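Regression test attached.
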Amino acid sequence: MMRSRLWLAVVGLFVMTGTAGAQKQGGTLRVTHRDNPPSASILEEATISTDMPFMGVFNNLVVFDPDSTVNRLDKVVPDLATSWALSDDDRTLTFQLRDGVKWHDNKPFTSADVKCTWDMLTGKVNGKLRKNPHKTWWFNIKDVATDGDTKVIFHLHDPQPSIMAMFAGGFSPVYPCHVPANEMRTHPIGTGPFKFKSFKQNESIRIVRNPNYWKPGKPYLDAIEYTIITNRSTMLLAMATGKFDLTFSGELTPELTKNLQEQAPAVQCVLQATGTQGNLLVNRERPPFDNEQIRKAMVLSIDRKAFSDILSRGVYEVGGANMPPPEGFWAWSKEYMETVPGYGADVEKSREEGRRIMQSLGYGPDHVMQLKVTTRNIPDYRDAAVILIDHLKSIYIQGELEPLDTSVWYARLLRKDFSVAMNVQGTGIDDPDVQFFENYLCGSERNYTSYCNPDLEKLFHRQSQMKDLEARRKLVWDIDKKLQEDGARPVVYHGKAGTCWWPRVHGIKIAHNTVYNHWRFEDVWLDQ
Amino acid sequence: MLQYILRRLGLMVLTLFGVSVAIFLLLRIVPGNIADILFDSAGLIDPAEKQQIVADLGLDLPLVTQYAHWIAGLAHGDLGYSYVSEKPVLDEVLPRIPITARLAGLALLFAVCTGVPFGVVSAVRQNTWLDYGLRVMSLAALSMPSFWLGLLVLMAFVNWFGLLPIYDKAPATWGAAILMYGVPAATVGFRSSALIMRLTRSSMLEVLRQDYVRTARSKGLSERAVTFIHALRNAVLPVITTIGIETAFLFGGLIVTETVFNIPGVARFLVEAIRWRDYPMVQNLVMFIAVVVVLVNLLVDLAYMFVDPRIRLRT
């Protein structure tokens, strides 16, 4: 017995040392980048173009378990916070912070930095951030207090279990108090495994190993270099020839992913849910779309499967506001989805009902409604808008495509200067709080259609406070169904995209339900 | 001669003033500004935050004041700050100029070194198989879109040599630089070469029929002397004009080539700056390109005087 235990211990030690020794130090990871990031400040952007390259510079209070392929509430693990605790009334969240952590400029990290960051994010300190796209994530934070250098206390208006998911997301790094916001946009300082080295506009981004990282021995890479290649054909050829180790997060369409694997069979790829969805925006303040019946008819004309088939050969998923399964946790079950108007398998039946509604309003083959379908003039938006125009024909609506330059697209949405628009948008975290409060709350900046249902809003808050996941999910299904029935912002498809890397890259763990997290690269190493 | 150059320089200042007004106004006529674009990446617009950005950047000032600020800065060598990178425009633009200059220079060298000799050969061997072949090739070069040709070249390199001649970092040696810039330069120079070849050919054909060429031959001069000393020198004037125009194009119009070969040059940067409505960057880059164009035109005019003594006499 004693001998077998000794053997187990020896084998265990061998395996442990073997595993620990397997990672190789050094090397530069070469990654393609799709476009020029608007800035290096993650807190001020909502785009993966900033999030991915600069995530390695920072740490969060907590993160989604880097070893898990799914980002979920039960997968949140410590980062700069070593532990956290909720008060009995679930309204006070206390984080115990890691001691001895230093910023890249050697200043000590303290609870004041955490307070400072969330004071900016909640809008308590004005003028520091030029933009604050995730302000709605933090609506429930009443105030932030510190208790010494290593304890920070968040006082919440109401209980909100999902707030931990927001803290763990890639868009929630902790910023240093002593560095001005404009400097964070050009030369970010963090506590993360990599230090910022250079950001050459339209050319490259380079981050290098932080030798004083608080996790001893990590990161393994000497540097990560992102080369901005805007032309997808060039990027594919460059990846296929091995000039790069990794493609940009979720940059390859399902078709391009397949194409790359045919060109370079050794390349490994993962198709992820991108957290982006195509949705129909109908201006409910502008006649005749203030008529609920017309909006309903429009929803009934949509063949969601056709969108998926045409845009992605059937890879895109159909669902409501929340990310559909298997990646998403909060979306309807298949059986439940069948009960939602417009989601039934028989599209022709839905369209027949849509035509009946339109006929009752005086429209028909001889009296067709003319409208403009506004969209942003980039392929993802334009292609979907063209399909939408085709579908609307089935209910006597003749659409004309109105492609808008990016510079005017959001300005027009804000002014509500559109009748019908095809929109594509992303959310960083698969959680109903993010979806509902960001996009459907009365008066929210991203509530482009001005949908406002005070009764439903109460349910938004109720689900947000629920601890029982299953009960919350049931309520979320009902809310989502009501949103689709009301035509608040009819969801047409949920996107998926590929990320690929060569086998020489080890330690990459990609979450299947987001493209925005898991890019700290502290466990990644190169076998070369 | 000095008087001529001074007069041309005076005209150059007037031209640049016109360009500065045009680009300043055109940029502001185009819908949207940097504040709109900045919020694009965030997917929302907060009116208060937007107004703050507009005020911070001085975009709410009267147009005349904005223009005066820009020109006053230019006069002092202060090109302002990029709205996007928040760095001095000069720091952003300067590293890109040598890249574009190298690419344009190599492309021009390729175009002239192939276009002029092939044009001469084609004219001298008119209506032979060689002439037909060169004419077909030049037509093909003019007809092929450069993005398509660029991608074909890239795919050919991948298939035949297993390497991809794109820009991923600054070349460390002259050899590496020639390799890195050579392929895109040849790709873009192919079209210019065809243009120069066709122009040289037609110009040479006209000159070769002139009496003085016949006289030169009757004097017993060798065919090489007749072609290169008597004919080509007289045929080259329109070619010089074309080279001037192509030089201007190569400095500011290589957007497709720079994109396909991923070269961080002036043209790609300019297009990105326009997309972002980065006014200081666009205004100063356009002014830089305008200066290059005007200077090249001046050099072309001066070249006329050296090549054709009759022009020199008239000045």
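Expected vs. actual: identical. Chain B has a mean pLDDT of 88.
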